[in-house]
Amino acid sequence: MQVLIVYYSTYGNVYKMAKLVAEGVQEVKGATPLIRRVPELIPSSVIESREDMKAGREMQKDVPLVTLDDFKAASAIAFGTPTRFGNVSAQLKNQIDQLTSLWFTGELESKPASIFVSTASLHGGQETTILTLMGPLLHLGMILVGVPYSVKELFSTQGGGSPYGPGHIAGLDNKREIDPQEALICRALGRRLAEIGLRLQKKQ
Hints:
The chain is an alpha/beta fold and about 200 residues long.
């Protein structure tokens, strides 16, 4: 069973989260993660003028772009995004907006879906971003999967992470590393998404 982890990341923080979610998926027998990125919409001239953006682009240069076939083949999907004014990034939303053909055919219906997010600050909109992205996923017929409080780190995290999904606080310079609790929550989501995907697959 394949778990698609599709994301957008400007500076590389969401990409690092995607790899942690993939580690969690790999812990589940019979599940295989597939990491894919979405196309960049920021003009190259802007990226070239910023060392931090260029470093983020370089970090992810070998990650293939997602395709419609990737969405079709996946039995479960995790969506990763930075927050943009309390909402999903334009890049990831642009990709989701291109899933209309799969919506028409019901290709994504009954597939479990999760969301993970990174913000610059503690109250930068992690939960609002996840909640607003849930709407389009429900329209696609997907089954939302969060992080239950049996993951004890939700009680003690000093960074990101909530029942809605994993989170990371990158700092105003986007250089804060993912801390151990944030990483554990990412892996926990990957495991749970894979486990639920396998259960649903067996019932079909």
